[in-house]
Design brief:
This protein is about 65% helix and about 5% strand. It folds into 2 domains: about 120 residues, no CATH class; about 170 residues, no CATH class. The protein contains 11 helices and 6 strands. It starts with a helix and ends in a 7-residue tail after the last strand. The radius of gyration is 22 Å and the shape is globular. The longest helix has about 30 residues. It is mainly alpha-helical and about 325 residues long.
């Protein structure tokens, strides 16, 4: 694992160096590019990760190396912010907003599990793992899943109303369709709209399915209709990877968004109307969207943590005599 993480660190440092020398920013804030000098920061993070991994490979995992690995892991997680949005625009749009930034998001996200696994590698007890039986999450965690599900209902209703040709917040379905076409929506997106469906509602439904799979026992075993996998345990990374990506994107986006619309409602900041006919219409839609993302994102964090703890393999401390 240390060597694999070292290889990632070298690639990550090289990517940052290439961005710095070519003048291409590796990070964007919305549609605004960040300074190209951030490439030197990316290169520095990769260099620190490479040095820490090299020390682990040569001398074993020491406290100082573990701290460095966790720090770099946190920085890589922050740098991966926006990966989910890249995936969505890649599926439903003509392509990602910026190829360099999208590559940076994907590369940083790849490093998070590698760095975390390397930082934890020295804590594995020398004993055989025993998988725990599938179990449901505690009651409070399931209540969080209920809240995350309910938060998406107004959002889904708003989107489906537009997709079916209705009017909400002063915008008709025809106007929203024209905006999607102007923004370069893909054929898949426009076809769904013509059927009265909305792509983000389908993604929200998948997100709710993932959320409940994390808190219910059926999310830990493959269903009966999978002939080759029936009854087998679901690999932990399969639900946890999209859960962590979704939580790392939606939770901060929604929480900061709720803070911004709160300030806009109080008149502290001005809400730009964008494609809407008035700032009040834009504010109404922003409230619905940001509350949905914030509540669901926090619920996903809670559910993912519960799933992680409930699916950890216990360790035998002795072997029973027979």
């Amino acid at each position: 694992m240390g060597r694999a993480t070292t290889a990632w660190a070298v690639v990550y440092a090289g990517f940052g160096l290439a961005c710095a020398l070519s003048g291409k920013p590796p990070l964007y804030l919305g549609s605004a590019p960040g300074p190209s000098t951030l490439g030197w920061g990316v290169a520095g993070v990769g260099a620190v990760a490479a040095l820490a991994c090299g020390a682990v490979t040569r001398y074993g995992l020491r406290p100082a190396s573990r701290v460095l690995l966790w720090v770099v892991c946190a920085l890589a997680g922050i740098a991966a912010f926006g990966l989910l949005m890249d995936v969505i625009t890649l599926v439903f749009g003509q392509g990602v907003d910026n190829g360099v930034a999208a590559a940076h998001h994907a590369l940083a996200a790849t490093g998070v599990p590698l760095l975390a696994a390397t930082a934890r590698s020295g804590r594995r007890p020398p004993a055989a793992p025993v998988a725990q039986a599938p179990s449901a999450a505690p009651g409070p965690v399931q209540l969080a899943a209920c809240a995350g599900t309910a938060a998406f209902l107004p959002y889904a209703a708003m989107k489906l109303l537009w997709a079916s040709g209705g009017t909400f917040a002063g915008m008709t379905g025809e106007e929203m369709l024209a905006i999607s076409q102007r923004n370069g929506a893909s054929g898949i997106w426009l076809t769904l709209e013509s059927w009265g469906l909305d792509g983000t509602v389908l993604l929200a439904a998948l997100g709710v399915f993932l959320l409940w799979g994390l808190v219910r026992p059926w999310g830990q075993v493959f269903p009966r209709w999978t002939p080759w996998l029936r009854g087998r345990r679901v690999p932990r990374w399969l639900p946890l990877a999209p859960a962590l990506i979704g939580a790392a994107t939606l939770a901060p986006y929604g929480v900061f968004g709720v803070g911004y619309v709160t300030l806009a409602t109080a008149g502290v900041v001005t809400m730009r109307r964008g494609d809407f006919h008035s700032s009040s219409d834009a504010l109404l839609v922003a409230w619905i969207g940001m509350v949905a993302f914030a509540v669901y994102g926090v619920a996903l964090i809670v559910a993912a943590r519960s799933y992680w703890l409930r699916t950890r393999s216990t360790r035998r401390t002795h072997v029973d005599a027979e």
